[in-house]
Amino acid sequence: MPDSIKYPPAYLSWVVWGLGAAFYLSGFYQRVAPAVMTDYLMADFNIGAAALGNLSAFYFYSYVAVQIPTGILADYWGPKKLLTAGAFIAALGAFLFAAAPNILFANLGRLLIGGSVGVGWVALLILSIHWFPPRRFAMTSGLGLFFGIAGAVSAGVPLRILADQFGWRPVMMASAGVSLIIAVSLWIIVRDDPSERGYTSFAPPPITGGHSPASLLTGLLEVFCYKNTWLLSIAPSGLAGPVLAFSGLWGVPFLATHYGLTPAKSAALTSMLLVAWAVGGPLLGALSDRIGRRKPIYVMGCFAACVGWSLILLVPDLPVWVLTSLLSLVGFASGAMILGFAFVKESVPPSLAGTVSGVCNMGVMIGPMVLQPAMGYVLDSNWNGLLENGIRSYHLGAYQSAFTLMIGWSVISAILICFATETNCRQRVLD
Question: What's 10-194+213-417's CATH class?
Fold first, then answer.
């Protein structure tokens, strides 16, 4: 190795990347927190399933809206500023949600949280590009998802226990404080590139000429000229959408009502789904890197998830061990969506990495953004008037009608990914 090339030590790369991952973890926690508090939220704000689905989806409305601007700004501003600003605004949104006197303020809090943490994933991918060798990209992407799922798991049984003990508002207020601590740490420690610490960057050399507004717009338009951008931005919504709609909102009441499980045990099962998702991401990413192919693993993951959801949601009264096994299978298979970020990055020139990552992540989150309120609307449309402790209770047929939306979307994704062009784990350089 020439003396002029001095890559950053591994511990420093992991510290910088780890702080970005911590912010992503906090965002995932906020994303699925309503799932274990459905009864508290419906009672506190006096709302039904449609309004609850909309409250949860306000997170995704702003999250999706910021993805393309985030991809552009990640290439222009750098991840440090994005992550720090996002963490500060997330703290404000969490405070507003926790203190909300009515559903309007709660929606506004969720809107602020979603938009602010929406910068986390793309910024984390950019940190990976700069601080790790290219061969580690799929693996670090999978680990990023693992951190996110860890946040979601903490919003499962632990959050339910804390909410039962202290109330949901104080617990969410504490999460605002955690976001504030993360924001300060990001600003002090994180750097966009190893060169700012005196080391050699792993990122490709920047294209001369900089990022003018015209070039940024041109880059945004250019990424849509590639077929894989479209396919790899739509297909993962059918993997992430059902997972986050089930674990992030409707799984806990469904399991509690129709399998007689307590809210805590229902939360444990949905958390297990997320854990399997977290494990599947890095393992499938590492397998893809090893065999030098993206598409076969992605296709198999899509079809396995589609079959698993069909059995879970349409076959009534499954033995709990079968239900548990199927949820684990679906979660693991859905981890294949993480390949999409390496897949789509390799499908465009390196200068468009941040922009195309934002577009892809926007597509991922369209799934839960649409599914959560849509399923709530279907549930309310099939409600037979039954109330339990003043909260609407929905029969099995209502849930099955709502869950049909999840299955349909997963089928579409499985078909679309079949038309993607394999990159063989090689970065496109020239058009």
Answer: mainly alpha
